[in-house]
Every structure is written in structure tokens, then in C-alpha cells.
């Protein structure tokens, strides 16, 4: 009954199923692993942020370059404030405002971008308090350079003089006349009536939309694997039923490959049209002549005089 599994058609079906199921399971497991990695990163960042608040601040040079292990750590640097810039369209606690960003010139001439605080409303240089003069020592959470289009970071350009949309060395080096660290810090205690800007988690470490997309893709791949198995059993059941009917004589395969039932009637799709156009049609077209002849044979003879 299962000899049909050895036909070339079923060899192709079986090979496809044997390749498709492991592939779908592998892709689903990989997407699930990506989601679990993001969950672990989120927990690690949360624990790191809590421990960073308790740890003493460390010199900036000891924490560079910024990576996941140093992002959010408390860093300290000493220098003199230089140029001051505004970073518009930044939201804090659901309110729109702007950052006050000031360059801290440290020993060696390089500058460290320092977010001294946040103010509500449109970016206005008149609202931003002046930076302290003289040598200062600042302490704040170390952050990696921003990327255009990231969460809360505008990708637009064409800002007025004295403003920038992205806090990164790549953008600031075109504004200030000196080298800039590929990092920045946000002060834990904001200056002069401004609101302190909390540290951000490193990119691709939070439970954002991408993380839940990975979870959704996991479900899709496992559904695909189940669908392949379902369709294989459905085709197998159909072939088994056909083979069983053939063994019972309910279905026969003629020399031309058409299927017939046990009475010899052709069950192929073209059988009905052939019958309708064949003998049945001839009887219908010749019905008048044939019935007329039979009626004439049965008619009584006319009486003779």
C-alpha cells in the first residue's frame, strides 16, 4: 500500500520535507536565541546601572573606549569649558525640550562633550545658563556617541549655528576647532536650574521593537515547520486512501492512466463530457425518427372495404 513512497514524485516530496523542517527549526531557534540575548543584555544593563550609582567615579581615561561594560559608569574629568551648543528636540518625562551641551577642554587639548542639563521648550541660547569659568572637575555617566536615527536622536540636518542634532565626535568635529572624544557624559547634578539628563542604555540592549520582532519571527518559523509536517501527512493520507480504494476494486487505473470505478464506468474528468456528446446525444438527436418507427409498427391496419 505504501509502495507509492518509492516513486520519484514522493522521493522529491520527502527530500523537501527532510530539508525544510530542520531549516525552519534552526531559524526559529536562532531568532529565539536573539530574543534571549536581548533579554540578558537588558538585565545586565539594569544591574550595571544600579551598581554604577554605588561605585566611585573613575578617571575618564580608564573607561575609554566606551563599550557595554563601561557605558553608564561614573566618569570624572578636569578641564575648562569652551564652546556651548544646544541639542534641540529632546524629550524628557514626556516633555519636549533641548540639551545644553558644553565642550570641556581637558589636558592635551581634546574636548569632552558634557550635557549639563535639559530645558523645556524650543532651543534658545538665551535660556541656557553660561558655563562656569575657570578650571572645573565634572562627574557624570559616561555615554557612547549617538547615531542618527537612534531612539530619541533626530536624523535631520541643517541646524542653525550653535546647534547640533547628534552628540558624536563625527558631527562635533565639524563644529568646534579641536579634536573631540568619541564619548560624552551627562552630569548627575545639572547646573543652574536645569534638569539632569539620565543615562541611556547602550544601543540594542533594551526591550525595544526589534526584540519583540525576534520573538515574532520565532513563532513564524515554528509555524512554518508545523505546516510542512501537516501538508506531508495530508498528502500521505490522500495517497493511502487512493491505494486502498484501488485494492478494493473501487478505483481502477486504465491503460491510458484514467481512473474508473468497479462497474467499469470512467471516473476521469473527461468521461462525463464524452458520454454527453456520444451515444446519449445520438439517442436524443434520433429520438423522433426512432420512436416514430416503433409507433408505426404498433399501429393497427386500416379496415378493408
Q: How would you characterize the overall build of this protein?
A:
This protein is α+β, with helices and mostly antiparallel strands and 305 residues long. It has two domains: 1-55 and 204-259, no CATH class; 72-187, no CATH class. It is 39% helix and 20% strand. The chain has seven helices and eight strands, in the order αβαββββαβαββααα. It has a five-stranded mixed beta barrel with strand order 2-3-4-6-5. It is elongated. The two termini are 80 Å apart. Belongs to the SURF1 family. It holds the Pfam family SURF1. It comes from Streptomyces minutiscleroticus. Residues 43-57 have a biased composition (Basic and acidic residues).
Detail the topology: elements first, then pairings.
Blueprint: H1 8-54, E1 58-59, H2 60-63, E2 74-92, E3 95-106, E4 111-120, E5 135-144, H3 169-172, E6 183-187, H4 209-247, E7 252-253, E8 259-260, H5 271-277, H6 279-285, H7 287-298
Parallel strand pairs: 1-2, 4-6
Antiparallel strand pairs: 2-3, 2-5, 3-4, 5-6, 7-8
Helix pairs in contact: 1-4
Quick take:
By secondary structure, the protein is an alpha+beta fold.
